[in-house]
Design brief:
This protein has helices at residues 2-10, 24-36, 46-55, 75-82, 90-101, 140-184. The protein is mainly α and 188 residues long. Helix 2 (24-36) packs antiparallel against helix 3 (46-55).
């Protein structure tokens, strides 16, 4: 959980500035998720998705409730399935607006007021405890092989990321160079 908190605190978005300090309740919620999974936070679980929604409410959607398997619907599909109208009169809209303006107390928009359910639902049934074992628990040969494979994968991933960053940063230079060459060449 500590590494996830460190990464999320350094991560910015269009609506969340970084660096930032996550609230105690958000840290506690992540620790609670880890406690349910032998100290690990499954990134493929509903609780982590819910936690990310609390950390980035405008970027990460609220996960569906456990067992809610209804597929997303278009507006027309929703209206047809429920056989109700989705239109209201201007008078009804004004009444709703007036009710909202008369509400007592401030609206709650921070993560402490957001709903939280403790039901977990994993997308995968990976045994996370396997990843927490020390290498002494594994046969030496398999451990060496695994380390080599993981090291190679990490190096390939780092190389690919470096190339992507390099190409992305050089793209503006390439288009500027192409415009200068086009200006210098005689037009025929």
């Amino acid at each position: 959980p500590g590494l996830i908190i460190e990464l999320v605190e350094a991560l910015s978005s269009d609506t969340v500035a970084a660096p930032r300090n996550l609230s105690r309740s958000l840290r506690w919620k992540l620790d609670t998720i880890a406690e349910q999974h032998d100290g690990y936070v499954p990134l493929h679980g509903r609780l982590f998705e819910q936690w990310m929604h609390h950390a980035f409410p405008n970027e990460c959607s609220q996960p569906r409730a456990v067992g809610d398997t209804e597929a997303p619907m278009t507006h027309d599909e929703w209206r047809d399935r429920r056989n109700i109208s989705t239109q209201v009169t201007k008078k009804v809209m004004q009444q709703l607006t007036d009710l909202e303006s008369q509400a007592v107390g401030p609206a709650c928009h921070d993560e402490a007021c957001m709903s939280w359910t403790h039901e977990e639902e994993l997308v995968s049934d990976i045994d996370l405890s396997v990843f927490g074992r020390s290498m002494a628990d594994w046969p030496r040969v398999q451990g060496r092989r695994l380390r080599r494979v993981l090291r190679s994968l990490a190096m390939c991933g780092a190389g690919a990321a470096l190339m992507a960053i390099l190409f992305d940063s050089l793209r503006p230079l390439g288009s500027r160079f192409a415009r200068q060459v086009a200006k210098r060449s005689p037009s025929g």
